[in-house]
């Protein structure tokens, strides 16, 4: 059985049925409602308080998990309900994620500019490690932070600051509007119902979850098998920067399969949560997932640097700094693939 | 004995004395004179024929080897003669090397621009491999080659082409002037004497060469031990691009120790040649040396891209492309250090 291959030592393996799914969905729905109440109480003002940020994160977190479960365990759930619910939950988590994403992207790019200038870490911030960005650790760099930069790096930083802060502010307004919309109220109403009553199909309570969880894992495994892992495992393969100066301004198409694996890994992780509850996630799976998060972040940061370089009337020094920054983030993309390859192979070898 | 550690299976180890050194120097001096005659016959015109290029390479090759032997085996040679000879030989090989260096640098940068544009290799040229640049394979890219590039990449390529072709032409004139100078004639006269009569000290014919060769190896080993090899062996350590946007426009000081090891490795190799003649160089030593050549080439190419970006009145698109190119070459620097670390450790482990 595929699931036993995944975790042969788990004493609960092989016992979960639709009842476990219902319990999981009720718990996530309750979390969603609690986070929503907290978010309303803390106001959700721009650049908001820490509580408001935490509440938004908890909302996204539960929305993602409900949505993932509707996908993985679809045969056990009322089909019409599940199909109408998923895009709405994706809209909620996607809309709420944008503000944080712009903030983290700016943080990542300013940290990189400092690193590339040979400067020490920004005051009061963690050292510019190659690892994934932690939770946003403060406001973006001030003008004083940039005193140690060259004119080009400072101007590039100021440009990115303007553009990404504007994008973040807009994302914040969009999120607030979304949370006040009738569309969102309809979602919240449905989640409130879900917190007490999960629309299972009649056969669901006796249906085992494991084959469906195993199928989710198989989709992940298949997608990983299609990745160019051999190349990725070869350090300094220089693949991520191919097309770095391509005339095509769209995001790198080579990143797509990796982003897809990132999503499938998340689905796999949430599918396991339904079976194993709060059991800590396998450390190697966690490392692989973090590598893919970093891949996504670096890919989007590189695109933001390239985008900023197309701003009219910038100076050559600014453009040069943005070019260096773009290439630096594309190498972060390549480094993340290498890290994923190492983590993934380690897992496979040790699981046999 | 250190030499035995170096090559315990060599049947000739422990037998070479000053006579071997004299034979080696006479042979190199003869090569020098032959190459000089060939160079004069083939004219040495600008961008010259293949024979002229070969002759110049042979001149540099023998000058470097004579100079290295004067250094490593100094105690066996007339001190005043050796000390007056070395800087003159360094001047000859340095002056002759520049033209080729500019040509290879341009070739490397244009190849990189094509790679970064997602284009295939330049017509009639080897694929843009990450390995060391081969012998220059043709004229610089034409305008037609650049049709597949973005405006920025094409303009960056044209700018580098102008600047490095101008530098190469100047280097060629300088080399021709040097070869016609009285200073060079004095060097050639001394080499002509060396071809028949090597100024050994009286004790030299009975003096063993191995301790001096071992000392050259030890200088290499010590210099390698001082390199940050632990970091270099960690893929994607992002060290080579630190200071990539630093206000200091001088070449990266972090490259210095690696350049120094490259020179010491060459001295070590030539010291071995005196002992072992035409025995093929150890494959791992060769790999390590090639990695350091690539390190030097990428370091200088990165500096040329940064230098070009300071040209007045370039467009932002050109500057952006040069920034990407600079970062790409700095990552080549990092990749070369990684390759050197691997080759070097392999050698050490297997030599024990």
Automatic annotation (TrEMBL), chains A, B:
Region of interest: Disordered: 124-144
Superkingdom to which the source organism belongs: Bacteria
Pfam family, one: CHAD
Residues annotated as domain CHAD: 14-349
Name assigned to this protein: CHAD domain-containing protein
């Amino acid at each position: 059985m595929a699931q036993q291959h995944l975790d042969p030592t788990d004493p609960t393996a092989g016992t979960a049925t639709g009842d476990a799914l219902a319990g999981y969905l009720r718990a996530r729905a309750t979390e969603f409602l609690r986070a929503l109440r907290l978010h309303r109480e803390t106001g959700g003002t721009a650049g908001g308080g820490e509580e408001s940020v935490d509440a938004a994160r908890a909302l996204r977190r539960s929305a993602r998990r409900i949505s993932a479960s509707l996908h993985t365990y679809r045969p056990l759930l009322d089909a019409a309900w599940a199909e109408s619910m998923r895009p709405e939950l994706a809209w909620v988590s996607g809309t709420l994620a944008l503000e944080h994403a712009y903030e983290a992207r700016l943080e990542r790019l300013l940290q990189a500019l400092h690193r590339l200038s040979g400067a020490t870490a920004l005051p009061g911030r963690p050292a510019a490690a190659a690892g994934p960005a932690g939770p946003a650790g403060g406001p973006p760099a001030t003008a004083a932070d940039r005193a140690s930069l060259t004119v080009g790096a400072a101007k590039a930083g100021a440009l990115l600051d303007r553009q990404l802060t504007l994008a973040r502010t807009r994302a914040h307004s969009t999120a607030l509007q979304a949370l006040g919309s009738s569309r969102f109220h309809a979602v919240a109403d449905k989640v409130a119902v879900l917190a007490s009553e999960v629309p299972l199909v009649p056969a669901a309570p006796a249906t085992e979850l494991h084959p469906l969880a195993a199928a989710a894992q198989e989709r992940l495994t298949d997608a990983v098998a299609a990745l160019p892992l051999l190349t990725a495992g070869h350090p300094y393969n220089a693949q991520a920067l191919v097309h770095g100066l391509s005339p095509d301004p769209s995001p790198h198409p080579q990143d797509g399969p990796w982003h897809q694996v990132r999503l499938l890994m998340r689905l796999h992780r949430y599918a396991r949560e339904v079976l194993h509850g709060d059991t800590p996630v396998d450390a190697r799976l966690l490392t692989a997932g973090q590598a893919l998060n970093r891949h996504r972040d670096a890919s989007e940061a590189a695109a933001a640097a390239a985008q900023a370089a197309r701003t009219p009337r910038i100076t050559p020094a600014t453009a040069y700094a943005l070019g260096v920054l773009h290439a630096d983030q594309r190498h972060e993309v390549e480094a993340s693939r290498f890290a994923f390859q190492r983590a993934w192979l380690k897992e496979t070898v040790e699981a046999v």
